[in-house]
């Protein structure tokens, strides 16, 4: 499957991430057209090549056409995203990143997610950076994100509340469980937006995965001039997923008094926190009351974060935690061309043999809506293009 590795030797920020995605093949015209679907105005995009300590990189930023930028809360940003005509994947990913950022800001300021008001991160540039990242990942077909340890810098940074130590409080909150380091380089190298992107998107931290085949190296430039190149290096390539078993945790709780409208929001927050799976089951509770069982499957290192999220965002007073094993077949994603556009297809293998082929539903849906063609016809067309792979499945039965 397609993947990227973020080499954060000089930190990461929202505009560095966008710059790297542009350098990796995201057309600026596509980014501009998709961002135009948001109800935002009075800004323009800056996109140019620069050189940082001898390294050519893509510099991206947002320039405001008016000096005043309103303070927004999470609900304001959520409405801007939800009312747009962006794809479902982009909306969910962007809202998940902002949700995590909101939770960090709320904890730092001692308030709730609903009441926290963003200043720097509520401005247009942060909305563009986060939504733009989701747009870029979708366009490039990225399904997995890996990263190095983060170089956070040192010293102090000036923000709306005054001078703050590096990493800034919200950044430090977001970096829990993420490897990072600081050295003699002065300045804020990892911004809250950059930390939120990493915390929400990255599946594994460490060296470049041995199973990753690099196809392109891209650079996104930061705004500072340092003793080291102020760039984010991104390796774009494919990763062969191996069949493997792994330990996991199941977190469960039963509820009969939670407003049903909240369940969707909680599920989004849990997926943004790294849950493998989240699902709801109707149950009959004590006193014959109908209720709902919330089940979350997570990796053991995410346990504390997920339990805290469930206890604070739902009406339950306790959870059950169970150990479980999970097993995943080797997976890869290929792209199939149709007369109406490309569709991603997920392939599952066991012992080197193909056992399943599944066209990406959202890709088929987008084509069906755009060209007014029955969805089942698109699905059948894609499977027809995969005839050779289907024959491989038949041979294994």
Account of the 3D structure:
This protein has a seven-stranded mixed β-sheet with strand order 2-3-14-15-1-6-13. It has a four-stranded antiparallel β-sheet with strand order 17-18-16-19. A three-stranded antiparallel β-sheet has the order 20-21-22. It is built from twelve helices and 22 strands. Helices cover 35% and strands 34% of the residues. It is an alpha+beta fold and 397 residues long. The protein has helices at residues 14-23, 28-35, 74-82, 88-109, 124-140, 169-174, 192-201, 261-272, 303-313, 361-371, 375-385, 387-396, and strands at residues 2-7, 43-52, 55-64, 72-73, 117-118, 144-147, 150-151, 153-154, 156-159, 162-165, 180-181, 187-188, 204-205, 212-221, 231-239, 244-255, 277-284, 290-298, 320-328, 330-338, 341-350, 353-359. Helix 4 (88-109) packs across helix 8.
| Domain unit count | 3
The description of the largest β-sheet is:
7 strands, mixed
Order of adjacent strands in the largest pleated sheet: 2-3-14-15-1-6-13
Number of helices: 12
Radius of gyration from the CA trace?
22 Å
In percent, how helical is the residue content?
A: 25-40%
The proportion of strand residues reads: 25-35%
Low-confidence stretches: 392-397
Which structural class matches the secondary elements? alpha+beta
Principal-axis shape equals: globular
**Quick one: how many beta strands?**
22
Mean pLDDT: 88
Compute the separation of the termini in Å.
Answer: 25 Å
């Amino acid at each position: 499957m397609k993947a990227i590795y973020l080499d954060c030797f000089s930190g990461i920020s929202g505009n560095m991430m966008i710059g790297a995605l542009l350098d990796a093949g995201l057309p600026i015209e596509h980014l501009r057209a998709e961002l135009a679907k948001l109800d935002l105005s009075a800004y323009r995009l800056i996109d140019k090549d620069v050189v940082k300590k001898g390294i050519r990189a893509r510099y991206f930023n947002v320039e405001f056409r008016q000096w005043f930028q309103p303070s927004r809360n999470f609900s304001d940003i959520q409405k801007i995203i939800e009312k747009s005509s962006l794809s479902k994947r982009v909306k969910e990913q962007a809202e998940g990143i902002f949700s995590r950022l909101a939770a960090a800001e709320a904890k730092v300021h001692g308030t709730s997610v609903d009441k926290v008001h963003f200043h720097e991160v509520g401005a247009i540039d942060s909305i563009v950076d986060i939504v733009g990242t989701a747009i870029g990942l979708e366009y490039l077909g990225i399904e997995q994100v890996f990263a190095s340890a983060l170089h956070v810098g040192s010293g102090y940074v000036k923000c709306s509340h005054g001078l703050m130590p590096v990493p800034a409080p919200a950044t430090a909150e977001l970096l829990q469980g993420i490897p990072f380091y600081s050295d003699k380089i002065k300045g804020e190298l990892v911004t809250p937006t950059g930390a939120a992107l990493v915390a929400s998107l990255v599946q594994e931290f460490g060296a470049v995965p041995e199973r990753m085949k690099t196809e392109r190296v891209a650079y996104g430039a930061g705004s500072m001039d340092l003793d080291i190149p102020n760039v984010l290096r991104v390796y774009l390539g494919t990763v062969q997923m191996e069949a493997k078993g792994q330990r996991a945790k199941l977190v469960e709780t039963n509820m009969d008094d939670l407003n049903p409208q909240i369940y969707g929001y909680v599920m989004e927050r849990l997926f943004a926190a790294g849950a493998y799976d989240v699902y709801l089951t109707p149950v009959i509770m004590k006193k014959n009351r109908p209720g709902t069982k919330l089940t979350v499957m997570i990796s053991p290192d995410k346990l504390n974060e997920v339990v805290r999220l469930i206890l604070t965002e739902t009406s339950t007073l306790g959870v059950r935690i169970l150990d479980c094993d999970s097993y995943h077949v080797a997976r890869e994603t290929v792209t199939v061309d149709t007369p109406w556009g490309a569709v991603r297809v997920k392939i599952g293998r066991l012992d080197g043999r193909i056992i399943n082929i599944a066209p990406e539903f959202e890709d088929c849906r987008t084509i069906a809506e755009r060209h007014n063609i029955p969805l089942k016809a698109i699905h059948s067309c894609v499977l027809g293009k995969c005839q050779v792979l289907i024959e491989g499945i038949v041979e294994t039965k």
